[in-house]
């Protein structure tokens, strides 16, 4: 229990390592703490103590010659890796950590801890700063290249020429889904403050010629498409808000629209599953946002005029949930 209660110490120590870019500095091999400290702008003695505390957790190895190296686990905080967890460390600790201190308020009132702490809803606060938007899009890209990367292997979207990624952030999910699909065109749709990052990302991936980037509000209207992808979007919202998003899609796509949700599906019972801790994050940060079971997704979709056709489980903690308009 004491170890669980002290989790805040570990998360803060890992954040310091990520912020100072210690793992990146160690990519080329072991270094002394003194050299590390000089390179990252830290004091040697506090840095040595951080490393000593994290070494038993499998983040660092302290070698007999007095140098330090990262383990494979610690190396995931390097900025050089395509699946780097560093963006997630920065995003969570710079946007979630302090608001989560008001979780008791959520339990007593139902209001998101973040709303109380920040003075406004979380996403409004995030999109109010270009720096925070960049943190958000980088963290979402990590989820695509890291924990969710394995889920794209072998999966093919339902038929349709135009695929719209609604709430698509950087477009990283759409880019993965369009790999090996040269005949399909895409649309990344997100808030006007977010889509500039998508344009840059798609240009880097060589997709700018067949993926359009559109800014807007998915509660009001979305672009016309044949297939709509909602990647980890519905879990941010309560059922009423989700229905508004789904109805926007239904109105734009018409009776033949196909829908693909990329979400974690909460299993029944008490078995461990990442969605159960993510649900705790949603409770504190979004209030009405939540993770859902398969039955809850089916009921939500039905209430907005969609039928859940199938759930495609993947090697990752995430699934594809395919749905069509209810006749």
TrEMBL record:
It holds the Pfam family Dimerisation. GO terms for molecular function: methyltransferase activity. Residues 123-306 form the O-methyltransferase C-terminal domain. The keyword Transport does not apply. SUPFAM superfamilies: S-adenosyl-L-methionine-dependent methyltransferases, Winged helix' DNA-binding domain. GO terms for biological process: methylation. Residues 3-77 form the O-methyltransferase dimerisation domain. PANTHER family: O-METHYLTRANSFERASE CICE (PTHR43712:SF2), PUTATIVE (AFU_ORTHOLOGUE AFUA_4G14580)-RELATED (PTHR43712). This is Methyltransferase.
């Amino acid at each position: 229990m004491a170890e669980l209660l002290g989790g805040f110490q570990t998360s803060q120590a890992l954040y310091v390592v990520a912020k100072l870019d210690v793992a990146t500095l160690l990519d080329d091999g072991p270094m002394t703490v003194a050299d590390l400290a000089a390179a990252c702008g830290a004091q040697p003695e506090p840095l040595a103590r951080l490393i000593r505390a994290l070494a038993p957790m499998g983040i660092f190895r302290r070698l007999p010659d007095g140098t330090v190296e990262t383990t494979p686990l610690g190396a995931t905080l390097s900025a050089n890796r395509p699946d780097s967890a560093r963006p997630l460390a920065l995003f969570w600790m710079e946007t979630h950590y302090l608001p989560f201190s008001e979780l008791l308020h959520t339990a007593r009132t139902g209001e998101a801890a973040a709303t109380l702490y920040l003075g406004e809803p979380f996403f409004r606060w995030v999109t109010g700063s270009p720096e925070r938007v960049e943190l958000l899009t980088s963290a979402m890209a990590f989820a695509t290249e890291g924990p969710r990367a394995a889920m794209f292997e072998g999966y093919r979207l339902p038929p349709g020429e135009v695929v719209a990624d609604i709430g698509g952030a950087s477009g990283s999910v759409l880019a993965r889904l369009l790999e090996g699909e040269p005949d399909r065109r895409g649309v990344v749709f997100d808030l006007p403050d977010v889509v500039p990052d998508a344009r840059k990302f798609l240009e880097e991936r060589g997709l700018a010629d067949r993926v359009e980037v559109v800014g807007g509000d998915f509660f009001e209207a979305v672009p016309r498409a044949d297939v709509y992808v909602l990647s980890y979007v519905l879990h941010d919202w309560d059922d009423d808000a989700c229905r508004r998003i789904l109805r926007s899609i239904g109105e734009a796509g018409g009776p033949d629209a196909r829908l693909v949700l990329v979400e974690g599906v909460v299993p029944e019972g008490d078995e461990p599953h990442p969605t159960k801790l993510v649900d705790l994050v949603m409770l504190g940060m979004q209030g009405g946002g939540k993770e859902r079971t398969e039955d809850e997704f089916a009921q939500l979709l039905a209430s907005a005029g969609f039928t859940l056709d199938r759930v495609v489980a993947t090697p990752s903690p995430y699934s594809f949930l395919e749905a069509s308009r209810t006749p």
